[in-house]
Amino acid sequence: MIEAHDLTKSFGTTLAVDGITLSLGLGATGFLGPNGAGKSTTMRLLVGYFAPNSGSVRICGHDVNAERRAAQACIGYLPEAVGGFPGLTVREFLTYCGETRGLWGAGLRHAMARIVEDVDLGDAFNKQLSQLSKGWRQRAWFAQTLLSDPPVLILDEPTDGLDPNQKDYMRALVRRLAPSKTILLSTHILEEVEEVCDRAVIIAQGRIVADDTPENLADAKGRLAETFRRTTQTSAAGLSSQKEAVP
Fold first, then answer.
1. How far, rounded to the nearest angstrom, does the alpha carbon of residue 101 sit from its chain's CA centroid?
2. Range 82-88 average pLDDT
3. How many Cα atoms occupy the beta-carbon half-sphere of 63 within 13 Å?
4. Cβ–Cβ under 8 Å, residues 143 and 114
5. Whether the predicted model's global pTM rises above the 0.70 cut
6. Using CA atoms, how far apart are residues 55 and 191, in angstroms rounded to an integer?
7. Are strands 182-186 and 62-63 parallel, antiparallel or unpaired?
8. What separation, in Å, do the N-terminal and C-terminal C-alpha atoms of the chain show?
9. Distances (CA, A) of 1 to 4, 22, 46, 57, 216
């Protein structure tokens, strides 16, 4: 469903993504890394928001650069630090998002009713986004990723801003969706990957430093923290040594 080959992306002299190759099928993959590792940039390359300096991305067989609309039609995308459309109610926001995806009339109403129930948005449905807490806004934006029932979900910090009960609800939803969708979700919460994902990819300095099942990457207690520290710190130290060695 997601095929990325040798992706690179620079911003000026900063190499944010350095040769990332990924092949993802059905299931939920956790995308981990320290701040500045390149997670959000990689996700924006996958959805076509950024163009890579080199490399390629295919979504459901469609090249993101050459067949952008066809590829993006297969994706539900939740960006980092969501915002925008503060004057719209949740109903109006989801209507707008559905119509941009080609949903109209009864089909749109049915999709909205399904999503409002799945994401438990009923209490906020007729409130403006500006009136909602960060957690409720996050849920509204999560809901828009599901409206057209896309086969691929790319979720950047999907539980950011949610309270513990909301986190549990959203994690259960991701687990329920995972058998029938390709899901890539970034998070700083290692326990989230342990609970929800059947694969974990760790990046540091724009490079993949670990890629395996959470079980294989975990310590004897089933935790990912030690592997995360070891792989990301080793990568950072190695890159610093390379830089110091350059005359």
1. 19
2. 90
3. 8
4. no
5. yes
6. 32
7. unpaired
8. 43
9. 10, 10, 11, 10, 23
